[in-house]
Protein 1
Amino acid sequence: MLTIEIDDREVIDALAKLQRRVTDLSPVMRTIGAACSSPMPTGANWPRKTAR
């Protein structure tokens, strides 16, 4: 009888780490929040809206 054992712990760990990074949007939201709460430079206008 032939027995094959596969040690996939590293793969499972890497996939779990990737999943945590994709589902945790806190860093992105903090960056967006900081950008939204900072005042616009003096004399700056909102960009013109383009036709779709």
Note: The CA atoms of residues 6 and 25 lie 33 Å apart.
Protein 2
Amino acid sequence: MAEALQPQFGSGFSKRHLHWYGHFYRTISIVFALCTQFSWTHYKILEGIENEDNHEFYIAEAAKNNWSARQLERQVNSQLFERLLLSNDVARRHRRRRFRGAGGFAGCGSKCPAGYV
């Protein structure tokens, strides 16, 4: 197919490019393909994200924050999604630990003002 398309349309239709186009079509949802703020470079970066949760997170964040392709790449490479998950998990454990250390609901009686227990 590439041999037939290249003479008429140019080098953008090489075997390699056709492979990328097909992969793009299969992996990027139509909703996000219509997002006019994403360039081809955005889509190439997003295509490399295999985990579906990560993929959706970066699409949403890039659109919401109007990230350039370079900013998106930096956030993906710095594993922003994973770091946020870890920080939320650590914060959740810390709150749970503080709650238990304060006696939780069961130990609240001595810490609450009279009439609240």
Note: The chain has one domain: 2-101.
